[in-house]
């Protein structure tokens, strides 16, 4: 069965510090992988995606993520966090064939302190 | 980038009334649209998948007669919460799919009094 695990419910970092949000997935085949960000009361914005090719993908707002097949992980990173990055972050996996269904993790809430 | 517009952003209604939420893909054609429900501080729960011109596919436990979904065109899907009750109060989010990517609307906060 498909599942996505985000082990960290809440992370607090200082502005300017580096960030890594963890995501592990369970899937029958190599999936499509996504990171979305949600600000309070808003919908989800796509940060980046992995379909194939280079396992290190760059996204918007200075974020990147690395697909590690051996660890079934797709961790999100940012070298220097800004106060505006405070939000909820969701990792999601999708099937490579049709459907377009996504399975979401439970999310990680990021707090940025000055 | 692909934009999905969801309207209204917030609605308050009396118990027993029906509420319609619209989801539009503004700059792309979404053959598939998804409706999610999100409880406070939780992840998104898929309610149904709608394909243009056909009946929606509902997830287990979602009442299709309560949550009516219409996908009349490649750019518009609507969710109608019929005879809403306080337990239907939630945050509803739609998305449109294109090239294996889902683009999300800004969500609708429904409060049923």
Annotation keywords:
heterodimer, A: 114 residues, mainly beta, four-stranded antiparallel beta sheet, 12 strands, 0% helix, globular, B: 113 residues
Oligomer: heterodimer
Mean pLDDT over all positions of chain B: 92
Unreliable residue runs of chain A:
none
Which band does the percent of strand residues of chain B land in? over 45%
From the alpha-carbon coordinates, what is the Rg of chain A to the nearest angstrom?
Answer: 14 Å
Query: Which descriptor suits the 3D outline of chain A?
Result: globular
Helix content of chain A: under 10%
Structural class of chain B: mainly beta
Helix-strand pattern of chain B, N to C?
A: EEEEEEEEEEE
Number of strands of chain B: 11
Structure in words:
The complex is a heterodimer of chains A (114) and B (113). With 114 residues, chain A is an all-beta fold. Chain A has strands spanning 3-5, 10-14, 19-21, 24-26, 32-38, 44-50, 56-58, 64-68, 73-78, 87-94, 102-104, 108-113. In chain A, a hairpin with a 5-residue loop joins strand 5 and strand 6. Chain B is mainly β and 113 residues long. In chain B, 0% of the residues lie in helices and 56% in strands. In chain B, the strands form two sheets. In chain B, strands 2, 4, 5, 6, 9, 10 and 11 form a seven-stranded mixed beta sheet that branches. In chain B, strands 1-3-8-7 form a four-stranded antiparallel beta sheet, with no helix packed on it. In chain B, a hairpin with a 2-residue loop joins strand 7 and strand 8. The termini of chain B are far apart. The A-B interface holds A 32, 34, 36, 41-46, 49, 51, 90, 94, 96, 99-102, 104-107, 109 and B 1, 4, 6, 32, 34, 41-44, 46, 49, 91, 93, 95, 97, 100-107, 109.
């Amino acid at each position: 069965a498909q599942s996505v695990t985000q082990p960290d419910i809440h992370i607090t970092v200082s502005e300017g510090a580096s960030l890594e949000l963890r995501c592990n997935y369970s899937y029958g085949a190599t999936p499509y992988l996504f990171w979305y960000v949600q600000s309070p009361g808003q919908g989800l914005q796509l940060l980046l995606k992995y379909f194939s090719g280079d396992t290190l993908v760059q996204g918007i707002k200075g974020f990147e993520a690395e697909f590690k097949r051996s660890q079934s992980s797709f961790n999100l990173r940012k070298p220097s966090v800004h106060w505006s990055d405070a939000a909820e972050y969701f990792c999601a996996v999708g099937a490579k064939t049709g459907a377009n269904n996504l399975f979401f993790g439970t999310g990680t809430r990021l707090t940025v302190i000055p | 980038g692909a934009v999905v517009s969801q309207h209204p952003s917030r609605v308050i209604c009396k118990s027993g009334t029906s509420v319609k939420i619209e989801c539009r893909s503004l700059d792309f054609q979404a053959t598939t649209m998804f409706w999610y429900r999100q409880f406070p501080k939780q992840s998104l729960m898929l309610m149904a998948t709608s394909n243009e011109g056909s009946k929606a596919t509902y997830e287990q436990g979602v009442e299709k007669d309560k949550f009516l979904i219409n996908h009349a065109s490649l750019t518009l899907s609507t969710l109608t919460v019929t005879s809403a009750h306080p337990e239907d109060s939630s945050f509803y989010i739609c998305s449109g799919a294109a090239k294996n990517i889902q683009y999300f609307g800004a969500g609708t906060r429904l409060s049923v009094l």
